[in-house]
Amino acid sequence: MNAQELSERAEQLLAAHQLEDLQSLLDWAQQDSEVPPPVQMWLRYYQARLDWARQDWRAAESGFRKLLAQDLPVDLRARALRWLGESLHYGGQWQEQLLLEQEALILTSVLGDDSNRAAIYNMMGWTHLRQSRVQEALVAFEHSLRLCQGSGSREQEAWALNNLGLAYLRLGDPEKALDAHRASLAIRREEGLRLEEGRSLHNIAEVLVSQGYWRQADKFLRDSEAIAQEVGDQIGLSYVLFTRGQWEKGQGRLEQALAAYHQSLELRMAVGSQALIAEAHWAIADVYRLMGNWLKAADHAELAARAWREIVKPWGTRELHGTDESLHSSQKGGKPNA
User: Fold this and answer.
1) How far from the centroid of its chain's Cα atoms is residue 129's Cα?
2) Residues 6+ apart with CB under 8 A from 189
3) What does the pLDDT look like over 83-106, one tens digit per residue?
């Protein structure tokens, strides 16, 4: 199998989320004792992509860093930079992510690779959005959408529309947000992107919750949760449970909100995303505040602050186990210590 054949087959398996089949392909290809160096590079690249698809971003980061330490062809370097940036994003290492993606944008521009350029702009926009730079995010998402519409990349177009919906909601325009999310959902359904379909359903629910449309939001949350369970999307499920917490809290059901937030937190801790962990702790702290339990509110606010402090550190120096132990000491049997 040459590098092109490997790349085509691996991309097909990733698009279909057939991760075990991809692992079998990589294992089979590596058994050959005379694998040419170019193929070895692509095997390492797709092993790191597989780690990313499994939501093991630390392993993905390590794999991409090792690959980038080699003298790579320009197209492979551009792809590895893009995916290292995406791995760093989920670890909250946003400044390094943006620096790497600037280089990746230059390389993909030289290569005329609009599909990867669109993906990079999407992730850069998402990073700006996480840091409340909403206008910068909007510009990046619009760049991505134009590139997608020009190149015919439907999957990336759906992602750009999805992210535009998030930005519009942050700007206080729920109607535009709903329009963007519905357009994204339609494309994802047409393309058979089941995991992404679940994410779009969640994002529509999030807008409806923000506007107090409880019954409509409930249906979208249930549908999104079913897909997340079906495809094993742990991050997606954590989003659904978090928004379920918002849904319960908005209707004054604080005990139920607390339970949903805690479930979301457990999933986020398993993945190890400090940004998402901080968000969940902060939401839990706010519920305890509303319940008048100031001590527990302070405990979770401090855990949120600790997670935010960890975001600025490289993964290798983070105190992940300490954070985990502190949380579990307040949750017997994995249930919220209400």
Assistant:
1) 13
2) 197
3) 999 998 877 788 889 999 999 999
| Whether the predicted pLDDT of 1 surpasses 90 | no
Query: Of 263, 298, 69, 202, which Cα lies nearest the Cα of 77?
Result: 69
Burial of residue 75 (number of CB atoms within 10 Å: 0-12, 13-18, 19+): middle
Q: Which residues contact 124 (CB under 8 A, 6 or more apart)?
A: 98, 101, 140
CB neighbours of 11 closer than 8 A, spacing ≥ 6? none
pLDDT digits (tens, 9 = 90+) for 292-308: 999 999 999 999 999 98
CB 174 within 8 A of CB 207: yes
Domains with residue ranges and CATH for the chain:
114-228 (1.25.40.10), 254-338 (no CATH)
Q: Which residues contact 331 (CB under 8 A, 6 or more apart)?
A: 262, 337
For residue 34, the model assigns a pLDDT of: 83
Contacts (Cβ under 8 Å, ≥6 apart) of 276: 235, 238, 268
* Strand, helix or coil for residue 149: helix
Q: Which helix (H) or strand (E) holds 142?
A: helix 134-151
- What is this structure's pTM? 0.76
Asked whether residue 313 carries a pLDDT value surpassing 90, the answer given is no
Instruction: Reduce the DSSP state of residue 115 to 3 states and report it.
Output: helix
pLDDT band at 41 (very low <50, low <70, confident <90, very high): very high
C-alpha separations of 34 from 1, 37, 39, 95, 236 in Å: 11, 9, 10, 40, 41
